[in-house]
């Protein structure tokens, strides 16, 4: 629909309204020079038409008229005004009807503002998340390359480089409850490993190392890489929301559960788990224990033997990565 520019600035419509009902709009922009003054005229027109019992849903958006997005609504509005003005005068609607229309119009305007604000906020959060993800990637790159550099430096000086101890482990339960002593059973419960093929992340310290040594014959232990942690959360990650097990299908779920700890996206959650940040415990408690599949190809006959003896139980260090891939 082609609408003349003179109608889009609202001046012609205001003059028509004042001609049909004198004094409808007294103060307005007679020569609007920018989109803001044009939008102001359209707002005045909408307020005047609400008093004439025009439905707010049939009124154009002031911000869209000058750009031509509301041309069809504008043409329909002009047709309604001319249709109501066959007697050359416009009748004012009853006060109750005007008040109802006004409330409806204000509700629509409030909803539009809220949607617009949410859209802007989502855009800001997306930009911040992208910046944080890039910073995390640089940090991971340094963690991968720094040991090799320090090892070469130590070799030049005839010394040795001892890499730092891992900070986080992934623990997978391999055995049921039959024949498990009470102490080991209680430790498995404390780690939230209540079923076979359940897996959790565990922070490595003196206390947890002693507990892991006691349950070593019943679990598989290893130190996962950043990539494997991200795959686990993407494919098997579930969060705790209102005491329910909810899949991590969007960042909104993570933000709702951990936003107060400045963890809003999957990259934030992976970084907190991989680096054992100050909110590791909160993030780990938010995550539901992983329910893993049996490994592709099966366990074989040596499931409960130690890994050093050809089985699957015990600590397999960084070889846990290939094992987790078989479980996904």
Task: Tell me about this structure.
The chain is α+β, with helices and mostly antiparallel strands and 328 residues long. The protein has 2 domains: 5-93, no CATH class; 168-327, Ribosomal Protein L30, Chain: A (2-Layer Sandwich), CATH 3.30.1390. The chain has 13 helices and 7 strands. The protein has helices at 5-8, 11-20, 35-50, 62-65, 71-84, 95-156, 182-190, 206-214, 226-236, 251-258, 266-274, 280-286, 320-327; strands at 168-173, 198-203, 219-222, 238-241, 244-247, 290-291, 314-315. The strands form 2 sheets. A 5-stranded mixed sheet has the order 6-2-1-3-7. Strands 4-5 form a two-stranded antiparallel ribbon. α9 packs across α11. Mean pLDDT is 85; it is low at 85-90.
Give a quick summary of the entry.
By secondary structure, the protein is an alpha+beta fold. It has 2 domains: 5-93, no CATH class; 168-327, Ribosomal Protein L30, Chain: A (2-Layer Sandwich), CATH 3.30.1390. The chain has helices at residues 5-8, 11-20, 35-50, 62-65, 71-84, 95-156, 182-190, 206-214, 226-236, 251-258, 266-274, 280-286, 320-327, and strands at residues 168-173, 198-203, 219-222, 238-241, 244-247, 290-291, 314-315.
Key attributes of the depicted protein:
Ribosomal Protein L30, Chain: A, alpha+beta, 52% helix, single chain, elongated, 2 domains, two-stranded antiparallel ribbon, 328 residues, 5-stranded mixed beta sheet
């Amino acid at each position: 629909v082609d609408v003349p520019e003179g109608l889009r600035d609202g001046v012609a419509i205001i003059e028509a309204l004042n001609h049909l009902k004198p004094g409808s709009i007294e103060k307005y922009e007679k020569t609007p020079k920018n989109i803001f003054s044009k939008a102001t005229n359209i707002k005045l027109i909408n307020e005047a038409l609400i008093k004439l019992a025009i439905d707010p849903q049939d009124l154009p958006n002031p911000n869209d008229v000058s750009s031509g997005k509301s041309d069809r609504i504008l043409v329909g509005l002009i047709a309604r005004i001319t249709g109501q003005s066959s007697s050359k005068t416009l009748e004012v609607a009853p006060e109750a009807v005007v008040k109802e229309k006004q409330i409806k119009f204000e509700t629509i305007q409030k909803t539009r503002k809220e949607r617009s604000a949410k859209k802007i906020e989502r855009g800001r959060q997306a930009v911040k998340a992208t910046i944080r993800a890039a910073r995390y990637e640089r940090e991971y790159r340094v963690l991968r390359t720094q040991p090799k550099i320090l090892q070469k430096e130590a070799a030049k000086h005839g010394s040795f480089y001892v890499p730092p101890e891992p900070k986080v482990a992934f623990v997978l339960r391999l055995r049921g409850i039959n024949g498990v002593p009470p102490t080991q059973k209680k430790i498995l419960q404390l780690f939230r490993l209540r079923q076979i093929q359940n897996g959790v992340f565990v922070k490595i310290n003196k206390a947890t190392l002693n507990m892991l040594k006691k349950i070593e014959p019943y679990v598989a232990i290893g130190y996962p890489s950043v990539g494997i942690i991200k795959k686990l959360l993407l494919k098997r990650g579930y969060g705790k929301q209102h005491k329910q097990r909810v899949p991590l299908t969007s960042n909104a779920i993570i933000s709702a559960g951990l936003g107060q700890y400045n963890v809003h996206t999957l990259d934030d959650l992976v970084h907190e788990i991989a680096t054992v940040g100050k909110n590791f415990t909160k993030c780990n408690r938010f995550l539901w224990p992983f329910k893993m599949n049996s490994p592709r190809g099966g366990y074989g006959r040596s499931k409960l033997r130690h890994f050093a003896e050809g089985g699957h139980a015990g600590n397999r260090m960084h070889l846990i990565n290939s094992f987790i891939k078989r479980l996904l």
